[in-house]
Design goal:
Length: 543
């Protein structure tokens, strides 16, 4: 009855807090914007089509840790002490601070990882350790002989689980639901007569209740997202509970096995493709692949729920060696998933896959002003949904040297990502003739309007000739261009052509800043002026 009452209190408190925090996030515009405006053609990794409030993890943090601290005597009845509780709580608070900063200011990866590392340090300083681990072939392995082994294992384990839940957070209700199941499994496991630990059962009961309370708002269609802090927090709590329960790592792995293996496979796949696995993002996670096969968001999360429930419950009835075999079986399930999707991809490439796979991607001709502006949007937002071709036409550039430097960078990128490239010869005389009389126009004035129209007109003509479905331009990435004029000209040209203009806000979600960061990472040439001799002169005058 106590566990039932504490579950209801935590559930209700978290649900109320979630509703309140949702309003706060909307008020302060701390939201996750879609990759493109609702109804637009462009797409990306995000599958929602409207801004969704973030900071949902704060409701779980407040609901979970407030009850844990108020009823701390039920958590400290075993071998745990105040230092463990304070270290555990401090780590969660650090994660939430980092998550808020990331949700608000979109931190870079090297900045994001600081907070999980600090949270791990707080746990270790609080006295949490792994003294021994069970040998699946009998007996135990004592780790106290090597003082550095325990902190190292804790750091690797917690970091791995936190980033698993972080990367898993791509479908409504997926992470919160799997974490709720994890809480239930650990609760049941620690109430068995063989592994009786009422302190851990209490903490696990709170986790399940907090997740279910949040899931009311987070299940599809989601009204609020976990945010960076929330997705890390759930992995953190699960990881800490697995450690303080006496190293029940196997149980946590059975619950989170498929997501953990999916993350491991993702890292290996990206490394093999030559990408930085922690900076490069794609839509090849297992949940994305299930969605691509036609499963709804609800059916996709139910697949994950079922796997977590079945393998997690198996841990209740298996001894150490049996759990090892269950983990091997879990690896086999993941291998089957990988093999099936590999076969589907191969059949798609060979043109033999029909209704089982995604429909053939439409073709897109992207006018490219420069590699820095075009690379990020192509890799992160366009290549996944379109058969992409780059078109380099920039006779406005002030010199042949500048033209060649930009073209060289474009060739590096298209070769790296295997995108077709069409190059228009450099013809500055024709461009100078076209803008004659507008040499002294202000930036974004008449001269720029003529330049936009010239390049877009050539793009539409080529797209029509080559029978492309869509066209767009990387000019829309730069905040220094008149994006409304570019869209207006493009839409006007599209009305007179069978080729559609791909409407998208490429500057959304810090698109320009991310494009520059990616260009720097790839070592691409990044120019300091728009391109023509007049913009170069204006740039010098401003300096």
């Amino acid at each position: 009855m106590f566990y039932f009452l504490i579950f209801i209190v935590t559930f209700a408190l978290t649900a109320i807090l979630t509703g309140l925090i949702r309003k706060v996030a909307l008020h302060f515009k701390i939201v996750d914007n879609p990759d493109s405006p609702a109804g637009s053609v462009a797409g990306g990794r995000k599958i929602h089509n409207r801004p969704i409030p973030l900071l949902g993890g704060l409701a779980i943090f407040l609901g979970y840790f407030s009850i844990l601290l108020i009823f701390h005597k039920y958590f400290l009845i075993g071998n745990l002490h105040w230092s463990h509780l304070l270290g555990f709580t401090a780590g969660g608070l650090i994660i939430m601070i980092g998550g808020f900063l990331d949700d608000k200011y979109n931190l870079r990866p090297y900045q994001q990882i600081i907070f999980p590392l600090l949270a791990i340090a707080a746990v270790i300083l609080g006295g949490v350790e792994i003294a021994k681990i069970t040998n699946p072939f009998g007996g135990v392995i004592d780790l106290r002989t090597w003082f550095f082994i325990s902190p190292l294992l804790i750091a690797v384990w917690l970091l791995g689980l936190m980033y698993t839940t972080k990367l898993l957070d791509g479908v409504d209700g997926l992470v919160s639901g799997v974490s709720a199941i994890g809480g239930v499994i650990i609760f049941l496991f620690t109430l068995t007569s063989r592994y009786y630990q009422p302190d851990i059962a209490f903490a696990a009961c709170l986790l399940a209740a907090a997740c279910f309370g949040f899931l009311i708002y987070n299940f599809n269609p989601a009204k609020i997202f976990l945010g960076e802090g929330g997705s890390l927090l759930l992995g953190y709590i699960l990881g800490v509970l697995a450690i303080i329960s006496g190293g029940k790592i196997a149980i946590a792995l059975l619950i989170m096995g498929v997501p953990v293996l999916d993350v491991a496979w993702t890292i290996l796949r990206r490394l093999y493709q030559g990408h930085n696995p922690f900076r490069f993002a794609d839509k090849n996670h297992l949940h994305h692949r299930l969605l691509a096969l036609g499963l709804s968001q609800k059916k996709t999360v139910l697949v994950f729920y079922a796997l977590s429930l079945v393998f997690g419950l198996s841990g209740l009835f298996l001894q150490s060696r049996g759990k090892l075999f269950a983990l091997i079986g879990l690896g086999g399930v993941m291998f089957i998933f990988i093999l099936v999707f590999w076969r589907l991809d191969k059949r798609t490439v060979n043109g033999t896959l029909a209704s089982v796979s995604r429909a053939a991607k439409p073709s897109l001709l992207l006018h490219v002003c420069c590699a820095p502006c075009a690379t990020y949007i192509s890799r992160e937002r366009l290549a996944e949904k379109y058969n992409l071709t780059w078109y380099f036409y920039n006779s406005n550039l002030d010199s042949l040297e500048e033209y060649q430097r930009r073209l060289a960078a474009v060739k590096i990128v298209t070769k790296k990502y295997h995108w077709p490239l069409i190059i228009e010869p450099y013809n500055p005389q024709a461009w100078q003739k076209m803008i004659k009389g507008h040499e002294n126009d202000v930036e974004r004035g008449g001269r720029c309007q003529l330049c936009y129209r010239d390049r877009l007109t050539k793009t539409v003509q080529l797209a029509k000739q080559k029978k492309f479905d869509f066209f767009t331009t990387s000019l829309l990435v730069s905040p220094y261009k008149d994006t409304e004029a570019i869209k207006r000209i493009s839409q006007g040209l599209a009305e007179q052509s069978p080729v559609k203009f791909l409407v998208s806000d490429f500057q959304a979600d810090n698109g320009y800043q991310k494009s520059q960061a990616l260009a720097k990472e790839l070592g691409l040439y990044r120019q300091k002026f728009c391109g023509c001799v007049y913009s170069k002169l204006n740039s010098k005058l401003k300096k």
